[in-house]
Amino acid sequence: MSCLICLQETADPALTVFSDDRWAAGVIPGYDVPGWVILRLRRHAEGIGGLGPDELTSFGRRIRDLVGAVREATGAVATYLLSFGEANPHFHVLVAPRTADVPEDRRTGDILKLRFERASLDGARALVTPIRLAYERLNLATPEDPMEPITAHGISMTYHRPALDSGDTPLLVALHGGTYTSAYFGVAGGPMGSFLDIASRNGFAVLTVDRPGYGQSVALTEADNTFARQAEILDSAIGEALAQKAHTKVVLVGHSIGGMVSLEVAARHPRWPLVGVATAGMGARIPSGGAAEQLGSLPLSGVVDLPIPDRDGVMFGPPGSFSPAALAAAHKSYAPTPFVELVNAPRWAKERLRTLAAEIKIPVHNVLAEFDALWDSSAAARAEFVSLFSGNVTSELAAGVGHSIDHHLAGAVLHLQQLAFASACAA
User: Fold this and answer.
1) Which residues contact 10 (CB under 8 A, 6 or more apart)?
2) Which CATH architecture has domain 147-426?
3) Rounded Cα distance, 158 and 149, in Å
4) How many CA atoms does the CB half-sphere of 195 hold within 13 Å?
5) Cβ distance 107 to 96 under 8 Å?
6) pLDDT of the chain along its 427 residues, tens only?
């Protein structure tokens, strides 16, 4: 027996309000009361229980916008949603406007009697265009869920759509540092908001990545957990994520160890279109005997969860450079850490940076904090960083802040610099 709802795949286009990859809506002959529209799942699934997670999510948006469009086009006083799934179990919903001229004995469930009393295919067809135009306007006015989870090669990522779609900005791929998850980039240091907030308002999509061993991403063995190995995995994962998106240019944004891994990725010359790297909280020199070496020399192994007060003392600058709200928000982005990262980080600049810099030909923008507890941010150290590269590379000082520059009141200054750099790379 054929499915009436499946048959609508070949329906008259003049009766279709919209059709996308999952859902379609339109007039079905036999239910052609003017203003009545049926929203249907395009694939055959029976009942709402047959919908997958993405279909459930998108259903809410589609039905909301369709109801608004029908109400706007018909001037309905009320709009009914009816789904029985008995005669036609393929999941669908009837949107039936109740206009002011519908008598009381044809309201609520009795509105279905209008199926025979007010049927008019020509009248229903005449309302399709006004409903379609209203739907398209409502759909554009309320963009899709700004966050989309993506998993590839065991790496958990989140794609953040911009609030303003400029159409010509590069995708920013954000890699967090040690002891954090990708939630790092969602912490607002000041009134202008977080890195994600500021990027979104300026038309940049962002792909935040949980590096191996963080969040839901795959954990590596201690022997395998080098920054070069992380770069190899992330190169593949980012490439697979990009295959799902229409971005022609990419800029890596890395904080601390995330900056080191970003340079490791850039030196691999990925097949995807990397045009620049913006790093912060990492450089060319680790102070001898400083906090970074002290952390790496602790008699620990495996995954460690460092005490919050100890982290705060390393990550933040002097009192007054950050707000209590930012400090509390940052705590939520702290995470247990593969200890081997803290062992490898102090050695990385001496062992790897010169070799990587010789391979990197794309622009690099580097910023170090004035009160960085882990890195030497002196003018001499920043000049050494630049000298290792042959291309367009800068290293600047963020005045008055600590290692996690983004989480300070002046964090927005860094973010705007990074967006300007990304725009220049894409020009």
Assistant:
1) none
2) 3-Layer(aba) Sandwich (3.40)
3) 4
4) 33
5) no
6) 588 888 888 888 899 999 887 899 999 998 999 999 999 998 888 988 888 776 787 888 899 999 999 999 999 899 999 999 888 899 999 999 998 999 999 989 888 999 999 989 999 999 999 999 988 888 766 555 577 899 999 999 999 988 776 668 999 999 999 999 999 999 999 988 899 989 988 999 999 999 999 999 999 999 999 999 999 999 999 999 999 888 999 999 999 999 999 999 999 999 999 999 999 999 999 998 888 888 878 888 899 999 999 999 999 999 999 999 899 999 999 999 999 999 999 999 999 999 999 999 999 999 999 999 999 999 999 999 999 999 999 999 999 999 999 999 999 999 999 999 999 999 9
Residue 304 tokens, joined: 């460690």
Q: Could you name the CATH architecture of 6-141?
A: 2-Layer Sandwich (3.30)
At 377, phi and psi to the nearest 5? -110, 20
Cα separation values, 107 from 30, 32, 35, 38, Å: 20, 17, 15, 18
Q: What is the residue whose two structure tokens read 């891994």?
A: 261
| Amino acid at the residue 41 | L
Domain residue spans of the chain = 6-141, 147-426
Q: How many CA atoms lie within 13 A of 422 on its CB side?
A: 30
pTM: predicted TM-score of the whole model, two decimal places: 0.69
